[in-house]
Structures are given as structure tokens and as C-alpha cells.
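#struct-help
A.M.: can someone run this one for me? Single chain, 255 residues.
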Amino acid sequence: MSLEVIPVRIEKQQGGFDLYQDIMNSLDGVVSLEDGDILVISSKYTANSQNRILDIKKIKSSEKSQSISERFQIDAKTAEIVLRESDKIFGGVAGFVLTSSDNILAPNAGIDKSNVRKGSVILYPDLPYLMAEQLRRKIFLNLGIHVGIIIVDSRLMPARIGTTGVAIACAGLEPVHDMRGQKDLDGNTLKVTLKATADNLATIANHKMGEGSESTPVAVIKKSGVKLTDRKIRTDEMAISYDQCVYVRGFQSKN
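D.P.: on it. C-alpha cells below:
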């Protein structure tokens, strides 16, 4: 059984549309959804359907965002958006504020100036886990099939060049495979290994979906072999608390 990834081209729309209907229209004649498929959807495409696009000129900066602007050398209005979208600010460098947004460690709270009109930014989707679950249920009710849903974004990996994929939300599949207690090739018991299933699939799909002008914000993964589920996925299942994160703890430790 070989895993297959089918990217789906979708005509670009600007702000506020029916995500389910747009996806179904684009799949028609290209690929048929079947039981066990994983539908991977760009976070920016999802956010666009919610009209999560801001005109930077209309943003009013606060005293706190002015301070962030000066500290990290970013525009004060952009700093205000970062401040609003962040759960926590860890620090940063010139041009980038390192933040947590929806349990995702990301520069500038995941806001993006690409694939939107000049002078605008697009944010992370609002309530992405709810969006994914609603989409999963709608597909089951209308088509009678069980699929997994992953909402994917690009991310930078520590000390690595380039971007990879990250699942900012999912529904219908078990996002993490706990391998603790199993044996490795030499018979050693695995003590800490948990496989990031949703993130791995997000990266595979992201490779096919592209980062530029491809206009393929959706991909269908077939024959993934992952475990599907009807239970509602919690928002904290793919995240680890920052006081347990090796990178965060390491960077914050004092020499």
C-alpha cells in the first residue's frame, strides 16, 4: 500500500466564502473522497474563507505595541496585530517577534503578508479545531464517508533552513501515535517516543501543495494507514506545555 498525495487547484477568492462548498466544487472531476482519506487544507485558505484579513492602515497601535515595535524593529501597526493574535510573547530578533498563537510557536503570531493584497495581512483561522470538526461532520452527513481533516501551515524549524508543515488543527484522525513501551530494532524499550502523525501528514501534503503561486491550497492523502476516529480532538493534544519543551527551556536557561 503506497501513500498517495493529490494536490487540488482552487481559484483564489478574496475573503468570506463557503469553505465546504468551495472545496467540494474543486474536488469534482479531480479526485473522489473515499473512506480513510485525509483532506489537508491550507490555514490561509481557511482563514480567507472566514475573512480573517486585515488592512494594516486601519489598525491603531497601542502603547504596548509601540514598545514591541521599537524593541523588535517592526512596524507599530504590525506589532499591534501580533500583540492581539498572541497567547504569549517569548522574545524575538529584528523583524520578528517569537510568539505562541493557538499553541503554535511561530514568528509574528503566524500572520502573513503573502497571498493577500498589498497592505493587508492574513491571520490564523478562528477556532480552527471547530472548523475542522464541522467540515468532517458535513462530509460524513452529505457523502456518508469517514475522512480525516488537517489544517496545515508552514513553519520554521529550529536551526534548519526553509519551511516544513505543521498541523494547526485536525479532526477525524488520531493526531499522535504513542509508541512508548514498544521495542526498537535492538529490543530496547521506547520510553519517550510519540509519533506526530498529524504533523507528519501535514508536512507530506505541504510538500505537494507548495508555497508560492501554485494555487493548490487543498490536498487529498490516500492510503495513509492512519487511525481515524469519531471523537472530538482537543486543542491541546498536539501541543506540549512550554515549561516541558526542550527548545524553550533550553533557550531560557541561564548559563
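A.M.: thanks! The mean pLDDT is 89.
D.P.: also worth noting: The domain at 1-51+125-255 is CATH 3.30.1330.100 (60s Ribosomal Protein L30; Chain: A;).
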